[in-house]
Request: fold
Amino acid sequence: MIPDDDLKGLSFADVLEHLEAGRIGHRAAIEWLGLATYNELVEVMHLNGRQMPGHRPMIVTKETRELLLSITRLPRRRSKAG
Reply:
C-alpha cells in the first residue's frame, strides 16, 4: 500500500488506478478526492469505468443484452445497387 503522504503528486486518474489495483485504501482515496462517503467513491469509480477492489461487475442477462441491442442498434442501410 502507498502511504497517504505519497498521494500528493498523483493525478485523478492515478488515484483511481491505484485504488482499483488495491495500492491505496478507500479512506485515502476519499480524502484525496474530497468526497464525503464511501458511496460517492463507488459512484466516481464506476462513472469512470473502474471497479472497486473486490467488487464484481453486475451480471447482465441475455434478455437485457438483446433489449439493449434492439434499442441501440443502428438501422441497416439499403444498398443503392439493385
